[in-house]
Amino acid sequence: MSDVYRACASLVVFRPSADGTSFEILLLHKPRKRDSWQLPQGGVEEGETVETAALRELMEEAGMQAQLIGRSATVYQYEYPPSYRRFRPDNVRGQRIEFVFASVNRDAPLQVDNKEIDAFVWIAPADLTRYIHRKQYVETILRLVEEGGKLLG
User: Would strands 92-103 and 4-16 be described as parallel, antiparallel, or unpaired?
Assistant: First the structure.
C-alpha cells in the first residue's frame, strides 16, 4: 500500500475589527507544545466536500457557525515527522490542507470544546507571527488572508 496524505479542510474566518476599518482572523489553540496555534481545521470525511468539512470542524472545535464566502486554490501539504509516523498504524504520510473563507459578525458566539481546542484568539493579520512560527505556514496564511480579504468587499 502506498503512502497517502490525509485530506484536510481549513477555514480562514474573518470578523470586523473593533473600529470597523479592517478585519481580524480566528486562531485556535491545541493543547500541545509545538505548532499549537492554527486556523480551524480537520479531516475531510468520506462523502464530504471541503466546504462541508470546514464548517463541521468549526462547529466541533469552536461551537461556531459562519457564512462561507469563497474557496481558495491554495493547498498546504506537509509530511508528518518520523517521530509521529512511527506511532501511526496506517500509511498516512502527512496532510494536504485545502482552504475556504468564511465571515462572522463581530459578536458571533464562540465556545471551544476544551478537549481538542483549549483557547482561541482573534488577531489582526499583522500579529500572526506572535502565534504561528513555522515560516511556510505563516506565508500561506498571509497569502490566504490577502486573497480572502478581497472577497469581503
Answer: parallel
Beta strands in 33-146 (DSSP E): 37-38, 41-43, 67-79, 92-103, 119-123
| 91, 43 contact by CB (below 8 A) | no
Given the C-alpha cell 478581497, which residue does it identify?
150
Other Cβ atoms closer than 10 A to 149: 16
Residue 47's domain spans which residues?
4-151
When divided into structural domains, the chain yields a total of: 1
What's the pTM?
Answer: 0.89
Nearest to 27 by CA among 98, 118, 95, 100: 118
Q: What percent of the chain has pLDDT over 90?
A: 73
| 136-153 per-position pLDDT tens digit | 889 999 999 999 999 986
- CATH code for the domain in which residue 95 is found: 3.90.79.10
